[in-house]
């Protein structure tokens, strides 16, 4: 039986780090690395192939260049699953929904099309992929949905992104409750600032690096450890845990108003 691990947004950042760390401990026989950038996916594959060469682990790494955004992306993914099934029956051990992006700036000042694309990828695609893999999951399979610390409170200058991640968190917890009796684990990773290319993309080049970003190696290692134990909401840094807890005592409007006035996030038009 083929056993598959699927990682979306696997071409860089935390997605690539999930691939590196899981490749060392997985029981899967195949990795599917999904993202739009075929060249960067190929680089991650080459790195994994090299690290696995000469070892005892028999792991096939597949590059799957695919735009997952929206219903069209979900249908492409479902078609890929059906095609792979023709090649042989398989089970999915792990789905890591890491694909997503943010946009900095006041909602009125950022491109509306960009915000709608964000909803398509962060919410529609993530939901669709979860639904598409359900028939292929088995007891002890796991889903990790990458949410954000932004999920815990509405944020000015980050309005749509925070809203999409609040959806991811809510959906993930509800899905965990529904799949508990089938012994399928669902976790929402809720990182704060992590040192990836996120800020450069979110600001359209105005901010090259994430401010005070944490090491993605440590964040991913903690996530995998906690997800294996069935932790539903995963936070690594102590500061993130305190922020998530204190959000319960801050009014939603107050949080949004404060961050709008004092947490400016640049966007380059």
What can you tell me about this protein's structure?
This protein has 269 residues and is an alpha/beta fold. The chain contains 9 helices and 7 strands, in the order E-H-E-H-E-H-E-H-E-H-E-H-H-E-H-H. Strands 3-2-1-4-5-6-7 form a 7-stranded parallel β-sheet, sandwiched between helices. Strand 2, helix 2 (38-52) and strand 3 (60-65) form a beta-alpha-beta unit. Helix 1 (13-23) runs parallel beside helix 2 (38-52) and helix 1 crosses helix 7. The radius of gyration is 18 Å and the shape is globular. The protein starts with a strand and ends in a 7-residue tail after the last helix.
Uncertain residue ranges? none
Largest sheet: 7 strands, parallel
SS strand fraction: 15-25%
Give, in spatial order, the strands making up the sheet with the most strands. Answer: 3-2-1-4-5-6-7
Total of DSSP H or I helical runs spanning 4+ residues: 9
**Number of DSSP strands?**
7
Structural class: alpha/beta
Spell out the key features of this protein.
46% helix, 269 residues, alpha/beta, 9 helices
Could you give a quick summary of the protein structure above?
With 269 residues, the protein is α/β, with parallel strands linked by helices.
SSE layout and pairings?
Blueprint: E1 2-8, H1 13-23, E2 30-35, H2 38-52, E3 60-65, H3 70-87, E4 90-97, H4 112-133, E5 137-146, H5 159-179, E6 185-189, H6 198-202, H7 216-228, E7 233-234, H8 238-246, H9 252-262
Parallel strand pairs: 1-2, 1-4, 2-3, 4-5, 5-6, 6-7
